[in-house]
Amino acid sequence: MEWWSRFKDNDSLRRTSVLAFICVMLYVTRSIISLVLLTFILTYLSTRLVNWGHRKTHVSKKILAIIWYVAIGGFLYIALTKYLPILFNQTFAMIESVFNFYQQPDQNSKLLDWIGKNISFNEIREHVTSGVKVIFTTLSSIGSMGVTFLLSLVLSFFFIIEVDWVKSFSHSFLTSKIGLFCEDVAYLGKKFTNTFGVVLEAQFLIAVINTGLTVLGLSIMKFPQLLSLALMVFILSLIPVAGVIISCIPLTLIGYSIGGVQHVVYILIMITVIHALESYILNPKLMSSKTNLPVFYVFVVLMFSEKFFGVWGLITGIPVFVFILDLLEVKHETAHSTKKVE
């Protein structure tokens, strides 16, 4: 058929059709989307770490992978048995102390007096406390998320252990009757890994650095419940750009309850410095120039991705957007290069 020959010869149309088919399949299997994303994230990050360790030590990749996954298992065991109860208690203690402070404002403080009269902290506390209970109950119980994470861990482990066999077996599909389809899937998969994976890896590294710097600053200011605050900052730091700004709100509320306006100023200065470090040093170093998006675009993408994909959208929205830009071959200059041209 002539139309089929034209379709096969048109790379852009054919790959667009394959991408649409993949999107439909992901939508149909959306009930296991968490398993797919977690498996990809764990596999990508673990593979990068194992390859890095192999280059540095020349130890077998399989041995390094076993050591790495045993370390993950040990960390999870210690975290669940020792630190989860501490985290649970610290979080509730922090919520109670902050709400008690704002419910009993100093009579000389008009700001706190106004807040106390116009905001129902009892109702807010009930919602926040119930929400935290749900989160910790989900994390500490053997529920669907725990099973999903365990399955993702097992799948990523076997992928890394048998990576050569997996690649060889997958390559055999290229010479099958669906070879053309598999070639397009391989092309899209490579694009996806080179954009989504790289950006996601950078987000994790930036989150670790931001959390370390923030916790260091909070410890200097004598903040209590650092373990709970570290977890909050790390999770928010996984959201590009916006996470650092969002974390400013609870930190300033807690800071005011501890040291007044002086601590609020210190926190704002600390957040500003960390945000500048992320924007002008970490992002250019860890990500390619094409991932340097204007803050306006970042917030727009995050709003839409959160609307359609929930919490996962906040974490994966920017990497997916960068992947789409790469497919569309959208090229743009950074702000610095634009200034030079002008």
Automatic annotation (TrEMBL):
Q: Return the Pfam families for the record.
A: AI-2E_transport
Residue ranges spanning the membrane: these are 18-42, 63-80, 134-161, 202-221, 233-258, 264-283, 295-324
Alphabetical GO biological process terms: transmembrane transport
**One Gene Ontology term, aspect cellular component:** membrane
The alphabetical list of record keywords is: Membrane, Transmembrane, Transmembrane helix
InterPro entries attached to this UniProt entry:
AI-2E-like
Keyword Membrane assigned: yes
> Is Flavoprotein included in the keywords of this UniProt record?
no
Cellular location(s): Membrane
Q: What is its main location?
A: membrane
UniProt lists the family membership as follows: Belongs to the autoinducer-2 exporter (AI-2E) (TC 2.A.86) family.
- What name does this protein carry? AI-2E family transporter
The species this protein was found in: Vagococcus humatus
